[in-house]
Design goal:
Elements lengths: L14 H7 L2 H4 L3 H17 L5 H19 L12 H13 L12 H37 L4 E6 L2 E7 H26 L1 E2 L15 H8 L3 E2 L3 H6 L2 H28 L6 E2 L18 H24 L14 H24 L1 E2 L1 H7 L6 H10 L4 H17 L9 H7 L13 H6 L9 H15 L2
Parallel strand pairs: 3-4
Antiparallel strand pairs: 1-2, 5-6
Helix pairs in contact: 3-4, 3-8, 4-5, 6-7, 6-12, 6-18, 7-10, 10-11, 10-12, 11-12, 14-15
């Protein structure tokens, strides 16, 4: 089959150009979306009186047969035909004759590809949102199961204040909930039909674009043909959402990697999700978590690659936009794999509560000792200084805060009384955080119930 545009040229395309410019090696991933779009376009052409009913039926049957052949691996993709669109059209014309050549009437590959990409993204977003919900429910289950486990929170990677482990898991659930909201919001802008925009200026056949949108399940129709063919911000927005979710996955991975180390010893990871060393027999490496952390860099890179490609393009379509697909496909695969991996890790990890709870004591409790003095009327800055001197006193003696007697507390301030000793219990201290969003058991039980309602579980 001759190239669609061969009539204007006097020479055959150089073999290098054919290989360098082809995209079918990767955009054939859009084959099902392309056929779905083709069938809707055929119905629109018939409605407009451009093709007969017999031609419509023949084209639709030919396209469905093509789809079946793709599913069975019987289609040979040819790089000389450039892309998925021309490969499918060539196969259809080869089977049906001239009627196959009518498929491209009233359409350009410029509006065709953005329609394919939007159809593809809508399907992939539904899968990603489902994985994010599974991840949130897994975190919610962990929060409910381990609500009575105490551990230190960290700022600057230094022990800060005692929290309940449930509070930690719900913090990440909150992050992934915001990620889901971003993807859902992006879905609204992706859900827009661009087919019928032609190459740049619209189409001179009486195509009912609203009918086509209904056939393809789009909620809106694009309002400007130049925008429709030049725009890639819907992909950039999707890639940003992927990168942001990857950032959250990476932060969770980093914590769990640290927590699984002997230095922390907070969790035990399942053997089946770790690997060993080829030389050091004692090693148990958290490779899944390390790869999730590492793959976040690819999610960032794909976003920057597309933004850099598009930033200086004149209106409207330019061939540079062919470079939007590989970052898109890679981010979809990378994110879905990372989400699946994190769900498996979380379902298999085992907290070591005794280690966590020991580290939730000692100087992690000292802020509440200072606040005890504030409750007695001591100005906070003065209370802070007294608490700091208590820390120095205990460090010099290699002792823990829990070892302090009331007599020793009174050495630093006569405002201390026996009730200060109650604050040497991490559980008591954590449960003093009763503000909305705090780590007290009372607030966390409320948060868990609210989350269960949100998730429908």
């Amino acid at each position: 089959m001759s190239k669609l545009w061969s009539g204007r040229f006097s020479e055959d395309t150089d073999a290098f150009v054919e290989e360098f410019t082809q995209s079918v090696s990767f955009d054939r991933e859009l084959a099902y979306e392309d056929i779905e779009q083709d069938i809707a376009h055929v119905k629109t052409l018939f409605k407009a009186g451009v093709i007969s009913e017999e031609e419509k039926e023949k084209l639709i049957k030919g396209l469905l047969d093509l789809k079946k052949d793709i599913e069975e691996g019987k289609v040979e993709w040819k790089s000389r035909l450039e892309d998925v669109h021309m490969n499918l059209e060539a196969l259809l014309t080869e089977r049906l004759g001239d009627v196959g050549g009518k498929l491209h009437t009233g359409r350009s590959r410029n509006d065709q590809i953005t329609t394919d990409e939007r159809l593809y993204l809508k399907k992939q977003l539904r899968g990603i949102l489902s994985l994010l919900k599974q991840l949130r429910i897994t975190l919610l289950d962990l929060a409910q199961k381990h609500i009575d486990v105490l551990l230190p929170s960290y700022t600057h990677l230094q022990r800060a204040q005692p929290i309940r482990l449930a509070h930690y898991f719900l913090a990440f659930r909150e992050m992934f909930l915001k990620d889901s909201e971003r993807f859902a919001d992006a879905y609204r802008r992706i859900d827009e039909l661009t087919l019928g925009s032609g190459a740049v200026a619209g189409v001179d056949f009486p195509l009912d674009r609203f009918f086509t949108a209904s056939e393809l399940g789009f909620n809106r129709v694009s309002r400007n043909s130049m925008y429709a063919t030049a725009d890639r911000d819907f992909i950039a927005e999707f890639l940003f959402c992927c990168a942001c979710t990857g950032m959250h996955l990476s932060r969770l991975s980093e914590d769990l990697i640290l927590w699984a180390s002997e230095e922390f010893g907070y969790i035990e990871l399942p053997d089946k999700l770790c690997t060993g060393s080829s030389i050091m027999p004692q090693k148990k490496n958290p490779d899944v978590l390390e790869l999730i952390r590492g793959k976040t860099g690819r999610l960032y890179g794909n976003l920057i690659a597309l933004m850099t490609t598009v930033k200086a393009l004149p209106m409207s379509y330019n061939r540079d936009l062919q470079e939007d697909k590989e970052p898109l496909f890679d981010s979809v695969r990378t994110l879905k794999g990372s989400l699946s991996g994190m769900i498996k890790v979380l379902k298999g990890l085992r907290p070591k509560s005794e280690v966590m709870e020991r580290n939730a004591g000692n100087f992690v409790l000292i802020t509440d000792v200072a606040n005890f003095l504030v409750d007695k009327g001591v100005p906070f800055r003065r209370a802070h200084e007294i608490a700091g001197r208590i820390v120095a006193y205990l460090i010099d003696r290699s002792r823990r805060l829990e070892d302090m007697s009331l007599e020793e507390f009174k050495m630093f301030s006569e405002d201390f009384d026996e009730s200060v000793l109650e604050l040497l219990n991490p559980q008591v201290v954590a449960d003093r955080r009763k503000t909305f969003g705090g780590t007290s058991k009372e607030r966390l039980l409320e948060a868990i119930e609210a989350a269960k309602l949100e998730e429908g579980v």
